[in-house]
Amino acid sequence: MPKGTVSYLDYFPGGVPPGAYFALQVDDITKVLDAVPPPKHDGLDLTAEICLIGLVAHFEAFFRAQFAALINLCPNLVNRLKQRGRDVSVDAIAVLEAGSNPASKIGFLLAEKYDIGTPAAVNTLFGELLKTTPFSADERERYEAILNDRNLLVHHGGIYTTRYSRQVFVKRRAGQRTHFDSLVVTRKLVTDTAAFLN
């Protein structure tokens, strides 16, 4: 390809459209889940926990990649972000490092700046960019619950914290012991979560 020419793959992180890449990642995670036999005991299933963490990580990456690709494909969308008060400045060195056609990479540079870690943040950002929100109220609530579980696993090894207990168990009236009992991630939870996120 001649210098300065942009391939349509250049607009996407890793050269793959985000939706297709996320579908491949979900498929790979479910294959891992199927390949590793479940534990012979009741209780904790480390494979299921790791798969849930991976699903959420890739889902967050999907939104960041989708945001970047939209701006890379249609740089004029940056105007909408600026009109909504977003900082749309980028580091000049990063622009130089972006290569021969930096306009096709602006989305990547901006995507690194913004919070996409919660459904509220995703809805706000995509609402500003496209005037639509990816999460309905019900989907937002479900994804927040998934994030709570993922964060408990990543930051506390799945052992219930005071904050998690207040958020989750008040609604369920469960008799879980904070700082002692652990979240039990089942394989069904992982496959149900994969279906929801996909």
Shape: globular
Count of individual domains: 1
Low-pLDDT sequence parts: none
Binned, the helix content reads 55-70%
First-last Cα distance: 34 Å
Query: What's the Cα radius of gyration?
Result: 20 Å
Strand content: under 5%
Which H/E pattern describes the elements?
A: HHHHHHHHH
Number of strands: 0
Largest β-sheet summary: none
Helical stretch count?
9
**By helix and strand content, what is the structural category?**
mainly alpha
Mean pLDDT over the residues: 90
Defining traits:
198 residues, mainly alpha, 60% helix
List the helices and strands and how they pair.
Elements: H1 18-35, H2 46-73, H3 78-83, H4 92-97, H5 106-111, H6 119-130, H7 137-156, H8 162-172, H9 187-197
Question: What is the structure about, briefly put?
Answer:
The chain is mainly α. The chain has helices at 18-35, 46-73, 78-83, 92-97, 106-111, 119-130, 137-156, 162-172, 187-197. The protein has one domain.
